[in-house]
Write a structure and sequence with these properties.
- The protein has 20 helices and twelve strands.
- The protein is of the alpha/beta class.
- The chain folds into two domains: about 290 residues, no CATH class; about 220 residues, no CATH class.
- α8 packs antiparallel against α18.
Length: about 600
């Protein structure tokens, strides 16, 4: 059995043990209160001299597992009690019941200590298995992996088949979204997951659970660690998770020795309630995890069986949009998705990306894991509206998005081919202006590609338009897709092609929506990717904005084209033929 499964089993064992412990502590407190009340009644009959002896002896018997019974018998058979005709038998009976209760508590305490130690060891074993030593100070990465392993164990316990890679993708996109630029702030994780619980739920299901992976792992880390228990009527500073039950009973005994029986019973009662509260909290967190797993499993199957392209929003499409709108924290994406038209386009774009991902073979990955390079090929343009560069790296599933040409610059088939092949270098690029055919180079020109992860500035909005059946390139790309020849080494090329009978299903869509859908599909498949864009970035009628363009990377004058030197042996490639029919037709 895996480390996560062992830890999962121990956690549920601990939860059940603590629940029973709390119930027995409450029962014990109630018995002590009854014994003490009986002594007070005896005092009312004139047995004041023996009250403290009876009460103290009874409590001593309870908290010493019956070792003080001879003292109790001596006190109970004293002349004062006999003279007042108050029988000590009920007290003795009550003591016996309480004694048995305490013996049960004591047994549970010993079990609790053992389970707590076991949980600590299993948690450390799981961290070691997840690469704790190698990750070092990268606590978030380690906690993300531990959480994913634990959720996978919960899924197996519930007989739900969810892959570990799938859960890793979800956790990196939600619980630990702050790991990426522009991601979710850790303080907002609880609210975000609270929203996620409501995905595809019927109206009558109203879950108020809010779970934070960090908080849950912190709670688990406290189990079995002894905490100091202060004397008093309240359990001050106790968490109920790190609270040692053995220390609690020891402290209660100390209170009784000072003949403060009422305070001792209240201390037991308060402690029991604190244990119940913390036990319930951790149980809710684990239950919430299981609920998320179940609903993600249903969502994955829903998307997997999404069906054909549609010009309307189907019931399945509505459920998917309810999930997206309920969990997305990117205001730009949420704003674009307002309105049925864009929602229909979104669902069709999801179908489009899934269709292309379905052709990716399992071995199309880099040696460092399930990572792929994705090249989007499309008609492109920039607009005069700006957005944070981090919007093109929305989740850790997208390692980076790389743009190649400066702003307001076109690319020809040579540059597009270099991008698609993955062999274009910054030293290979050349620029010319179609107005005079002269060599031209932006000044200054960065010595690196335009990588979105490293950018701290706003970038122009980028719109992608589809390749339609009326264009020569459409037939070339469509045939390549049918022949599955769009795979080149460790990358996949996705041309933005409109299905022949669905011209109205695809329109001009922002690049950030392509990236968002891609990150969502990557989460479902348990992959990561670097996205590359092979598209012209001319301004296409938008007003020139040289000052703003210069702030983020570089720009060119109108009608400037980026190209690269290529060996003639590549010129007859089928891919190059398709790219030439697409891009060279755009060059004026």
């Amino acid at each position: 059995m895996e480390a996560a499964d062992l830890l999962c089993d121990s956690l549920f064992c601990w939860l059940e043990n603590r629940k029973e412990c709390a119930e027995k502590l409450l029962e014990l407190a109630q018995k002590l209160e009854k014994v003490h009340q009986g002594s007070k009644i005896a005092q009312g009959f004139g047995a004041a001299a023996s009250v403290l002896s009876i009460s103290g002896a009874v409590v001593a018997a309870v908290l010493t597992e019956g070792l003080a019974s001879p003292v109790l018998v001596a006190a109970a058979t004293g002349s004062t009690v006999v003279a007042t005709k108050v029988s000590a038998i009920p007290t003795l009976v009550e003591t016996g019941i309480s004694w048995r209760t305490f013996k049960k508590v004591n047994k549970l305490i010993k079990e609790d200590e053992e389970v707590g130690k076991c949980i600590q060891k299993q948690l450390q074993d799981l961290k070691d298995m997840c690469g704790g030593a190698q990750l070092g100070d990268h606590d978030d990465e380690l906690e993300c992996e531990v959480t994913s392993q634990l959720m996978c164990a919960l899924a197996r316990r519930n007989k739900t088949h969810v892959s570990l890679d799938f859960l890793r993708g979800f956790n990196r996109a939600t619980f630990f979204r702050h790991l990426t630029s522009g991601g979710l702030d850790p303080a907002e994780a609880s609210h975000f997951i609270g929203q996620a619980l409501n995905l595809i739920s019927s109206p009558e299901i109203t879950s108020s659970l809010k779970v934070s992976a960090k908080e849950m792992l912190k709670n688990i880390g406290q189990i079995g660690i002894k905490a100091a228990v202060k004397a008093g009527s309240k359990v001050r500073g106790a968490t109920g998770l790190g609270l040692s039950l053995n220390d609690l009973i020891v402290k209660c005994k100390e209170i009784v020795k000072r003949k403060r029986v009422t305070e001792a019973s209240k201390f037991l009662r308060d402690s029991a309630r604190e244990i119940q509260k913390s036990q319930k909290k951790l149980k809710e967190q684990l239950d919430a995890m299981r609920e998320i797993i179940q609903k993600l499993f249903r969502m994955k199957n829903l998307i997997k069986n999404l069906g054909e392209y549609s010009l309307s929003l189907t019931e399945d499409g509505q459920n998917i949009m309810a999930y997206i709108m309920g969990t997305c924290t990117d205001n730009t994406v949420v704003s674009w998705l307002q309105g049925v038209t864009h929602q229909i386009e979104f669902v069709n774009l999801l179908r489009f990306v899934l269709e292309n991902f379905g052709s990716i073979p399992e071995d199309l990955t880099r040696p460092d894991g399930k990572h792929i390079d994705i090249v989007f090929v499309a008609h492109g343009s920039i607009v005069d509206q700006f957005m944070p560069a981090g919007g093109l790296v929305p989740t850790p599933n997208i390692r980076d998005t790389i743009l190649y040409s400066p702003w307001n610059c076109l690319i020809d088939s040579r540059a597009a081919f270099g991008i698609a092949q993955g062999n274009i270098q910054v030293t290979d690029r050349e620029f010319y202006n179609t107005s005079n055919e002269l060599y031209y180079e932006p000044n200054p020109l960065p010595d690196h590609w335009n990588c979105m992860r490293r950018s701290l500035h706003d970038i122009p909005g980028i719109l992608l338009s589809p390749v339609t059946p009326e264009e020569r390139a459409w037939a070339f790309f469509h045939q390549f897709w049918m022949d599955r020849s769009m795979e080149i080494e460790d990358r996949i090329i996705i041309p933005y092609l409109v299905p022949q009978n669905m011209l109205n299903a695809f329109r001009q869509i922002p690049l950030y929506m392509f990236i968002f859908v891609t990150s969502f599909v990557l989460m479902l498949s348990g992959r990561t990717a670097t996205v590359h864009l092979a598209a012209c970035l001319g301004r296409a009628g938008s007003p020139p904005m040289p000052a703003e363009w210069r702030t983020q990377y570089a720009f060119t004058s109108d009608r400037t084209v980026m190209t690269m030197y290529m060996d003639d042996r590549y010129m007859n490639s089928m891919l190059f033929t398709a790219l030439r029919s697409l891009f060279d037709s755009q060059v004026p």
